[in-house]
User: Fold these one by one.
Assistant:
Number 1:
Amino acid sequence: MRSHRYSLGLALAATLLSGAAFAEDLVIYQDWSSPAEVKALNVLKSAAEKKGINWVDITIPHDTGSNVTLLNLVTGGTPPNVFSENNPAVYMDLEKMGLGRTLTGLFKDLGAVDHFPAVVTKVITIDGEIRKIPLGIQIDGMVYYNKAVAAKAGVDPEKWTSLDAMFADFDKVKAAGFIPLALGAQQWQVGYLTHALVATLGGADYFTEIYGPEPKAEALDSPVLKDAFTWLRKFQQAADPGSVNRDWNMTTNTVISGQALMQIHGDWMKGEWRAAGKEAGKDFGCAQIPGAKAVVVSVDSWGLLGGQPEAKDKAELDFASVVVDPVVNADFAAAKGATPVRADAPTDKLDVCSQGVLDILKDPTHQVQNPHSMVDPDWQASIWEVAFNFWSSPSMTVDEAIASMKSNYDTIVK
Amino acid sequence: MTETSSPPAGTVMFPRPKKRIRGRSIAILVFLTMAALFFCIPLYVLVTTSFKTMDQIREGAIFSLPEVWTFEAWRYAWDEACSGITCEGLKRGFVNSLEILFPSLIASIAISAVTGYALALWSVRWAGGFLFLLFLCAFVPFQIIMYPLIVITVNMGIYGSIWAVAFIHTVLAMPVLTLIFRNYYKDIPPDIIKAAVMDNGSFWRIFIEIILPMSGNILIVVLIMQITSIWNDYLIGVTFGGLGAQPMTVNLANMVTVTTGTVSYNVNMAAALQTAIPPLVIYFVLGKFFVEGIAAGAVKG
């Protein structure tokens, strides 16, 4: 293993040997490349440099599923020190190879754990130990609306207290000549909307019965699921014809350009608004899905490579403590347009939407984690498929959708 | 086929088949136009979008022409676009791709040409079995042997460098290329070789002075095949490139693949075009020879 590491590319080998006395290299494997993301990464980079860490970047796009490239790099003897990865199974694989690194002690010493919202702690904990560094928070289903359009149509999305109230206003919006609801009908977007609806209607406990590590068969018989699919059908009927297979980015642009009133999607939508030069609270507003019993939280999180020499290990831990530092984390979140992972982060640089999210997350019972960080990937994939089939074939009934979920349950979970 | 107006040989029979042909050719034309549109419309969107500003793209009319033609997206994609925290644009990947291309090209073509020559024109022990093995290897998907190949390159000490990528390209191209060369050379009359041997020609001398000058067409075919496949490869580059030796395609994928980030469609389109242009240029320059080479191969073997 050791000798392999020295047989890396020349640049790395040279810096390893010559620069060791001054700065420790950390190979950081992630896949963010859009301007706001890079700006946020640079916040971390410059904070890490102050601790004597030299950031060596390796960027390869990877999905949230199985991370082949990470394991290839490990096999190749050039594993990254820090890597973006959500899937708990990967962390367990690394643990088995002796390359796991736990952070429970470090974060306790830093006093960070007490300030993480409940759901963040859940996401970063795998098998009883903290194994991930949380970077930022995103909410999977939020309402982002164009304030000018809302004013013209005479509606106020922030006043809606239920989905019924929201749909009741749609006629007004249509009468004013706007599309009420912009959606991008791709499988993952419909999948995200589905789990956001389950959380909205069922709350945290019910959500865990469907999307938790151990899904329950009884949960599939619950009226909540019927409700969720009934609403999903209403959403589908409210969507404009252009929604078929549309990227969420293009969908956001229809709201930005004033063709549609609003979009329900993850709050990373904010990135497109900001890239178009719009300001939260002035040009666009945001709210949780009306009447939500719980919101689904995605936590961007990175892991550390264990089994390292002492100096490297220290640099890795330094990096982790930099990331969860309240000030650095707030700056990072502000640059990316995300919400900080610490409730005690200074809020002066945050926009109203991120501040709103921090307020929502004050209630520990009102939040659940994104299914990716806990559920069996096969089960989740099957739910996505059912939801998307349901969405794409208007003749499919709610009962048929639930029946096919049940038969999938029998094959996959049992 | 089409110049039929002037010949005096025209009989009464002539106009009828001509009419029939015309009807059919209209159908063919319509079909070809549709097929061409099928490819040209996305290309049109690709090209026009790359010259638009993001403000115009947000309006949503994807078929409209740019209001202001700007090279900004092209410059940004080449020079500034970020792939992770490194914001050097595509040019970094372009250089890597070139560095991967040349060694892979030279090694794969040189080795397979010589092997094909030996198998076709010299009596090699086990040649039949060897050919059969090569034939089988040509059908093994890369993904299946990816892991062992990683371990091999690690043991060779080249994993994560340009040499690893070039080495894998060479190895993987070997079966097909050797078969192509072998089939091309096997139709050279053995008398030529026999005569050359009588004239005291050695294995190498015959190859260089007699066989190579006869291989122009097939070399062009193989050259184009290899340039296209090496340049367009993503999986080998991403798997064996490790740090800093990743080809342009990986660079491109980093730029355009976003899940929760914003998308600069104009920059993405410009970047995609920049990545696609080099093999296209090669194809246009050498395309004539390519068709000739394919035809020669087809007639011969």
Number 2:
Amino acid sequence: MRQRLPAIVSLLVVGGALAGLPFTLSGYHVGLAAQVGIFFVAVLGLNILTGYTGQISIGHGAFMAIGGYTTAVMSQDHHTNLVLTMLMAFAICFVVGLLVGLPALRLSGVYLALATFALAVSVPQLPLKWSKFLGGRDGVQTSKTVSHLWLYGAAWTASAILFVLAWLILRGRVGRAFRAVRDSEIAAVASGIELPVYKTLAFGISAAYAGVAGSLFVLATNGFAEPSEFGVVLSLQILVGAAVAGLGSLWGVLAGAAFVGLLPAVSSSVPVIGSDHGRDVVFGSAVVLVMLLLPDGFAGLFARVRRFARA
Amino acid sequence: MATLESFRPRLRDRAALGGVVPPVSLLLVAGAAGLLVGSLRSEVFAQLTVQGLALGAVYGGLALALVLVYRATHVVNFAQGELAMATTYVAYQLIHWGLSYWEAFFATLAIAFVLGLVLEVALVRPVQHRSVIAAVIVTVGLFILIDGVVNWIWGGDFKYMQSPFGTKVYSVGGVSIARLYPGMLGVVVISVLLVWALFRFTKLGLGMRAAALRPAESALVGVRVDWMLAIGWGLAAVLGAVAGLMAEPSQFVLEPTLMQPILVYAFAAAVLGGLDSPAGAVVGGLAIGVSLNLVVQYVPSISSELQAPFAFAVLVAVLLLKPSGLFGHREVRRV
């Protein structure tokens, strides 16, 4: 228990700060904080797959698109409750993730990166093809839109629930199996771990998280699900978030999500950079710099600081 | 006494088409024959084939750039397409400043070479030995960075370049074919042949092959492995620039997303040919280009929106059925 104390205290501090935040911020900033929450969910999910199980994915934007379209279509066609659509996004993406995980079993490293990248490019093309059902280029809109505050609450409640869920999954038997697969597939098999089961499971869980993030993402854009917002860059952003967070760490995820969610917005309000495109320059350079200077992301930095403080 | 020359016979089988097995060559001959017969019977088919080959050459050029980088540094460069797009903007700017098209073309290739070299030395070398994920993320960061820089300097609106091949239309056996397509095909094929000759016949090329495939041994005979790998990146950037410059007239406009779909086709082409086979990349590119064009025309349920998903399907199918591609070598993993 005493070892856990710092973790519990920091969890309470972060939770308390997040609960108090909306009362001190303007509407725009609450929206921004909600954005960070959305990325938190997505980065957390990818971290389970890439960080803990060692399977790279550049295709998580595709799962977000599926989750987002689930929310938009269910809300528009059936007026389903928005929270319920998030649960549906979770379930549907879990199944889709398992299905994607099956062929991915035979791929690793660079090849998995290529296949998932192609997935990210392909999925946003599908609404253009089945435009009657999925709205084509103009997209689908939910029947209800939500306020910044609602979104903030939903995003961070989902984050909290999914964080605890991730912690529960990763601390036990399943998490051990994931890490064994990451560290050495051969050693894992030799210890009786069934690779196909755990690899597809990791894909499913990870995709389910991305699905929830996608449905929140759609709500954040006035309830519009459009092909253009789920472009390749979204997938790249999530991967960058996971890398910046530090693969294989739950604590870094907050930093990774803040990096992806805030840096573009913050840098576009700096006068010299100013324009919309300057922020991509800042973001891209920051990504490259972080990868060069902090090989283990912010989680590695935290660990280093902790060691330094103790010494 | 081991010399660099003694590497030549040992590298040959891996560098050239050595691994071609009879079924693959039969498949290629059958494909070519099918295209020829179809072209003789239908004018539309012939036009689509020529256009597909020209586009396929562009995909093949970019795929070859990816393969060169992969062989040299075992990194898949996700920014290769964006790099090609950026160099195409450089050419646009040079023409805007008053250079003729072909002056700008060659100046751009030189700039691309330096750019590729610098990127390898500054960004890729530090992470290259760390992990696949780290290297991929650096190239992803580069993707976003280049995209941002181009948008910053030139803006996101359409730009127009003069067509290097004019608007002339040839008539071959009653089939009218725009001069653009044979032009694209010719430029890419000549560039690819020059790169091939460089690798095959020069000492520099031999050094680069040795450095890529047997780094430790070649360092022992005095090859400067680091520099060879950096030059490999430079050459890849040059090929990418050729692909970008030839892609532009086929799309008729220049915009920052020019190369994004083409990158996916190039990935599919590189995987189809075998990720470590240069010849495979070119053949794969031509095959993807032609089949995309024909499939969209003749298979009713696959419309042009489904081109990227089609390429994705090809990519996944190849990876599942024959991960080494048509010409690649099976990866042997040491346990």
